[in-house]
């Protein structure tokens, strides 16, 4: 099962077992001298968790739209604890068969393939499956 979401007019997914919950967008406090894709930290039931921007990680265009009310934070299971990932909108859960999941195109560079585990084809849509281990790899300087 895959949890699908939108970023910059494209559809992406995480494996459902890597997602612990979906929360509303809430206040994110900046961390000085952190990586560009680390948006900051937020509080989830009293626990402080980092929040990252996949748009910045994947070098996607930031849209200059007013605040998006559909934005959500996906809480992923990290090795050192939960990590939030900001999304433009959660689409839903899909259950593609194994034959509907294909490998990333072989002509992509190693850097381009680093984040993409494969591509799911659902209802004529191509959904890039994000490699969770890369999405939650952050370093605070």
Q: Would you report the number of β strands?
A: 11
- Rounded mean pLDDT is 86
Distance between the amino and carboxyl termini? 35 Å
**Structural class based on helices, strands and sheet pairing:** mainly beta
Q: Approximately what portion of the residues adopt beta-strand conformation? A: over 45%
Please give the share of residues in helix.
under 10%
Question: What's the number of helices?
Answer: 3
Described by the principal axes of the CA atoms, the overall outline is: globular
List segments where confidence is low: pLDDT < 50 over at least 5 consecutive residues.
none
Order of helices and strands: EEEEEHEEEEHEEH
Give the spatial strand order of the biggest sheet: 8-1-2-11-10-9
Task: Provide the gyration radius in Å.
Answer: 15 Å
- Could you describe the largest sheet, including whether it forms a barrel? 6 strands, mixed
Q: Describe it for me?
A:
The structure is a single chain. The chain contains three helices and eleven strands. It is mainly β. The strands form two sheets. It has a six-stranded mixed sheet. Strands 3-6-7-5-4 form a five-stranded mixed sheet. Helices cover 9% and strands 48% of the residues. Strand 6 (72-78) and strand 7 form a beta hairpin. It is globular.
List descriptors.
141 residues; mainly beta; six-stranded mixed beta sheet; five-stranded mixed beta sheet; 11 strands
List the helices and strands and how they pair.
Elements: E1 2-7, E2 10-15, E3 19-24, E4 38-44, E5 47-53, H1 54-57, E6 72-78, E7 81-87, E8 89-94, E9 101-102, H2 110-113, E10 116-122, E11 125-130, H3 132-135
Parallel strand pairs: 2-11, 5-7
Antiparallel strand pairs: 1-2, 1-8, 3-6, 4-5, 6-7, 9-10, 10-11
